[in-house]
Design a protein that fits this description.
This protein has helices spanning 6-29, 47-63, 75-82, 97-115, 117-121; strands at 32-36, 39-43. The protein has 134 residues and is mostly helical. It has a domain at 6-70.
Length: 134
Amino acid sequence: MASTRRSTVVALDTLAVIFLLLTAAIFRSGTFLFYVGSVRVSLGSTHRTLLALLIVVVMRAIVAPRVGPFGRWTAQWQRLLDSTEREPIVVSVAPGAWRRAAVAALGIATALGVLLHDQLRHLDWVPDLGDPLF
């Protein structure tokens, strides 16, 4: 955690917990209403808080991916974090995978071409269903 300040990690984790609790409160009661000065703030659905929670979690994963929650570095978290790969998304590709993917894409394109043959041949055809405004 030498490159990341502990206060940043703690702030992001605290913000994530706040958004999680706010989402639970909105989900339970249906809406969450509070006032900031004279401005009424109403949160009627969980979509925005879940999106904010996702953004905070992604930022936390980018800022300090191998640090435990709230900047704590216990032996249990160390074992858990050491058991995960550093780059779990980067996977070695089996030989011939690109060729199989290209053949599959070509097959899907051919099937769509067969199914949409008339539409592709006559893109300027318009069905005569009368005036669409009346």
